[in-house]
């Protein structure tokens, strides 16, 4: 899904993880790859409402330093 959105030229993405109940290393890899592709196109992927297993995986894999994320997210975006 993220690859399709990027292929259509969308480069500023927000992934809402509020209702996420499962994520493994493959999911983190997909998010990191989408983040790198968006950045290469001049955009950014931001994770919103990161919690639980996703937050822990981002910390363990040191992706928390690479992928921008917020525990809470302000609904007014300025692009």
Helix-strand layout with pairing:
Layout: H1 2-7, E1 12-16, H2 25-40, E2 44-48, H3 52-60
Parallel strand pairs: 1-2
Overall strand count: 2
The rough form would be described as globular
Biggest β-sheet: strands ordered side by side in the sheet = 1-2
The mean pLDDT is: 86
Helix/strand order, N-terminal first: HEHEH
State the end-to-end CA separation.
22 Å
Amount of beta strand: 5-15%
What structural class do helix, strand and pairing data support? Answer: alpha+beta
Radius of gyration over C-alpha positions, nearest whole angstrom: 12 Å
Given the structure, what is the number of helices? 3
Low-confidence stretches: none
Largest sheet, described in full?
Answer: 2 strands, parallel
Tell me the helix content.
25-40%
List key phrases describing it.
79 residues; alpha+beta; two-stranded parallel ribbon; 39% helix
Describe the protein:
This protein has 79 residues and is of the alpha+beta class. It is 39% helix and 13% strand. The protein is built from three helices and two strands, in the order αβαβα. The longest helix has 16 residues.
Kindly summarize this structure in a few lines.
The protein has 79 residues and is an alpha+beta fold. Helices cover 39% and strands 13% of the residues.
């Amino acid at each position: 899904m993220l690859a399709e959105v990027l292929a259509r030229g969308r480069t500023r993405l927000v992934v809402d993880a509020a209702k996420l109940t499962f994520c493994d290393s493959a999911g983190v890899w997909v998010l990191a790859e989408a983040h790198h592709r968006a950045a290469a196109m001049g955009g950014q992927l931001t994770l919103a409402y990161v919690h639980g297993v996703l937050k822990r995986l981002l910390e363990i894999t040191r992706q928390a330093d690479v992928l921008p994320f917020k525990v809470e997210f302000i609904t007014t975006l300025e692009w």
